[in-house]
Please model this.
Amino acid sequence: MFWATAPVLPYPVLLGAAFVGGLLTLPVFSVVRQSIAALVPPTERRQAYALDSMSVELNFMIGPARAVALATSVSPTLTMYAVGGGIVLAGLTLLVLNPPTRARDEETTPARALPRRQWPTPRLIGLLAGGAASTLMIAGIDVSVVAMLRDAGQVDWTGVVLALWASCSLIGGFTYDAQPFNHIM
Model:
């Protein structure tokens, strides 16, 4: 719904709709990572997660550049519809493939239902805070890169700078994956 209406919404309404749409977005990354945990033997998960992270980096290198090229050469409205269509396609793919999120030998019924008051453990709160902080940091870096390049009058270099950044992260993924660890991370 968000991507179908976003091109015609006034800016203040767009901000509110983006917030609500963000809350309801498909958890593609989470489902893929859970599926990796279910399908890959524990001894090979580190490499599988590294490969997943590298594929995400490739998408972050290619996706925004494609969107900018489409928006500038064809139409920003069409670009927004294309992004929305891609998200719908990802959702349909998840629906059709229905990837497993539990290993076959994993117990499927909980020992007991956990009351909601017991969910927010210090460990969970720390994990959520760390995830939120890293997401804000990465978003802040993206915005800062664009702002610094705009201030320097070099906005045309945005794609190159962000692709270089993602390439360095990709190299880090290869380096991490090549390390000989004797234990599971």
Remarks:
- The mean pLDDT is 85.
- The CA atoms of residues 33 and 49 lie 7 Å apart.
- The longest helix spans residues 122-151.
- The radius of gyration is 20 Å.
